[in-house]
Structure formats: C-alpha cells, structure tokens
C-alpha cells in the first residue's frame, strides 16, 4: 500500500476515512477556496478537491493524496457553511419542505506519477416541513454552524429529513468512500 495522505483538516472527513481501518496522515492544504464567477458548482468542487491534493504534492512526492470539497445547492442557489445562528435559521427555513443537493468533489492524486482521478458525487436530502420551533431547538442543541446546509446528518440533524437519496451516505458528510475505494484500487491499493 502506498503512503496515504488526506488533504484535509476536517474532523468529519477523518472520521469517515477511519472507517476503512487504513493508515494515513491528515494534512491541511493551504489553498484559496474562492469560487470563480464562471464556475458551475460541479466545476467548483472538482477544482477544489484537485487543488487540495495538488497543494501537498511537493511535500509528499511518493504518496496517494486524497482531496475533497463539498457544496450544497437549494433552489438553484449555492449555500455554504452558515457561520452563525441567524444564517443557519435562514438556511433551514429555505430548506423546509425542499430538496437540497450536495455535491462532493473527490480527487486522488498519485504524486509519484502525477496522475489524478477526480469525480463529483451527488447526494440529495429531502427536508421535512420545519417549524420555527423545530429549527430553533435543533440549532441550539447541535450548533452546526460549520456545516454546509446547517445540519449534522450523523447527529440530531437526521430528525430534519423526510428522506435521503444517494449511492453512499458518507458523501453527505463530505467523503464518498465507495468512490474513493474504487479510485484507490485503480492505483493498486486494495482495501480488503
């Protein structure tokens, strides 16, 4: 197995990768995450995932480097991390009774050969009709201000949903493991 690097400081992505029982290092990449005016949400997350992996290529010349990034879309509008209670309230009010699509960009860079495989994996969340009381209670309980969409699906946030739709539930949290396993296998790294 090649040396494996997760280009992320996200505790959520680390927890997901830990499920595979593999040895890896998590290193925070330093990149500018500003979205270009002409980019679609798909192009944006694909570029950031690739750039996160590429940012560590020089420091880890003999590794497989995983980059990942995520954005969410509701009513055709891209939403990010709320950062505050008021913004989170607005995001959940906007999501009430609607579908949010999460797009997770995933890249696996072989820093030795320079080959890089990138994909964008969608996941859909259908929200229940949320009352102001439900929103306030949830936000005070979990404070998901650093999470796109203002919820933590791995916690109490699951109570906000009508249904989930996608190939891999890990995608919703930010790291599509099913797709990553295939990418690793393409590079000769077998998980099981």
Automatic annotation (TrEMBL):
It holds the Pfam family Maf. Keywords: Cytoplasm, Hydrolase, Nucleotide metabolism. It comes from the Bacteria. It is an enzyme of class 3 (hydrolase). Its main location: cytoplasm. One of its GO terms (biological process) is nucleotide metabolic process. Its cofactor is a divalent metal cation. One of its GO terms (molecular function) is nucleoside triphosphate diphosphatase activity. CDD domains: Maf. It catalyses: N(7)-methyl-GTP + H2O = N(7)-methyl-GMP + diphosphate + H(+). Its EC number is 3.6.1.-. NCBIfam families: maf. Belongs to the Maf family. YceF subfamily. This is 7-methyl-GTP pyrophosphatase. The lineage of its organism: Bacteria, Pseudomonadati, Pseudomonadota, Gammaproteobacteria, Oceanospirillales.
């Amino acid at each position: 197995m090649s040396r494996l690097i997760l280009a992320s400081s996200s505790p959520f992505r680390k927890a997901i990768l830990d499920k595979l029982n593999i040895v890896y290092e998590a290193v925070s990449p330093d990149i500018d995450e500003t979205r270009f005016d002409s980019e679609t949400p798909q192009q944006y997350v694909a570029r950031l995932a690739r750039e996160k992996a590429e940012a560590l290529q020089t420091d880890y010349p003999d590794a497989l480097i995983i980059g990942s990034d995520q954005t969410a879309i509701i009513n055709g509008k891209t939403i990010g991390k709320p950062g505050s209670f008021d913004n989170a309230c607005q995001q959940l009010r906007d999501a009430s009774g609607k579908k949010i699509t999460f797009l997770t960009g995933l890249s696996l860079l072989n820093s030795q050969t320079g080959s890089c495989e990138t994909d964008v994996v969608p996941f859909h969340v259908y929200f229940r009709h949320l009352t102001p009381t439900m929103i306030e209670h949830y936000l005070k309980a979990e404070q998901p201000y650093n999470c796109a969409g203002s919820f933590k699906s791995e916690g109490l946030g699951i109570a906000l949903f009508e249904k989930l739709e996608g190939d891999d539930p890990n995608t919703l949290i930010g790291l599509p493991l099913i797709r990553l396993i295939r990418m690793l296998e393409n590079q000769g790294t077998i998980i099981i």
